[in-house]
């Protein structure tokens, strides 16, 4: 199985690294616009093959998309990240043009690929990719919910003082500081509701910390995060390539689901060899429905800025 990752920067290279050492794909091609950068990252990762022990073949190219031909999955991480104090939405002006041209290039050589969109503002970039390419909705998947959910479980595990892998939970809605919806009502510690162990005040703090999880890391690092983002993309790609049918919150075109039309937003999806195989209705309560509608209003307002690109 072949994966192309466009953008060999922090997230793209980390994703390539995780895909390789976990043996998720047999071949990974990194593409970047910066001369020699993708080639260098691919060589560096390949030189881990005998120490972390993997057989995935990695290569890099400066913009030669013919090398990506026949990819099963293409991950788009190309574009700029935010700096401290910025929102993801402020990246749209530069990233929209990059994402659109990259999507065109990859499809020319891999017409059957499933596209995973990572560049921010991710929900709007997913919508742009879907509209610009005309691909069916199952083949355009925005990655954000997997990452936000892993942060949610991290903060829950800290509050519970229990291992993160014993915690279940998900974040839906937009992938934005104010548009994410951590579903605390449905989160559990090995099946027992977390509200059995944590006060509402603590749960509210966990939700708030989750929503600004990316901004907090951007403040600490000076650029946005990459380890958990790269690993979250690899987790999603694994479910596609190995047909695992995991339920992962992903940004996908909604056509009436969750009360929304003509918008890409995070909802729980079954992810398998066909990409988005099913959208799962988790039966939101009235407050969660209201939060989802408000989140959709914000994402839709951002999508309106695509007029000049689409
Ligand atoms: N959806 C998510 O959960 C999530 C998580 C983390 C980061 N992101 C987003 O992912 C993007 C990348 O973040 P990063 O930290 O890896 O940034 P980065 O600057 O480290 O890497 C981006 C790379 O894209 C390359 N690039 C730019 N234009 C290109 C083009 N036309 N073709 C090929 N490559 C091109 C750059 O040269 C650079 O190497 C940002 O937009 C960031 O906001 C999203
Ligand atoms: O925070 C960012 O800008 C990058 C990414 O969306 C994240 O959540 O880490």
From TrEMBL:
UniProt-annotated catalytic positions: 175
InterPro entries membership: L-lactate/malate_DH, Lactate/malate_DH_C, Lactate/malate_DH_N, Lactate_DH/Glyco_Ohase_4_C, Malate_DH_type3, NAD(P)-bd_dom_sf
Residue ranges annotated for the Lactate/malate dehydrogenase C-terminal domain, each copy included: 147-300
Superkingdom field: Bacteria
CDD domains the UniProt entry points to: LDH-like_MDH
Binding site for NAD(+): 7-12, 32, 95, 118-120
Enzyme Commission code(s) on record: 1.1.1.37
Keywords from the named record: NAD, Oxidoreductase, Tricarboxylic acid cycle
UniProt catalytic activity: (S)-malate + NAD(+) = oxaloacetate + NADH + H(+)
Record-listed substrate binding positions: 82, 88, 120, 151
Record domain Lactate/malate dehydrogenase N-terminal: where: 1-142
EC class name: oxidoreductase
Tagged with keyword ATP-binding: no
Listed NCBIfam families: PRK06223.1 (NF004863)
Annotated function: Catalyzes the reversible oxidation of malate to oxaloacetate.
Membership in a protein family: Belongs to the LDH/MDH superfamily. MDH type 3 family.
Stated name of the protein: Malate dehydrogenase
The organism of origin for this protein: Flavobacterium celericrescens
Lineage: Bacteria, Pseudomonadati, Bacteroidota, Flavobacteriia, Flavobacteriales
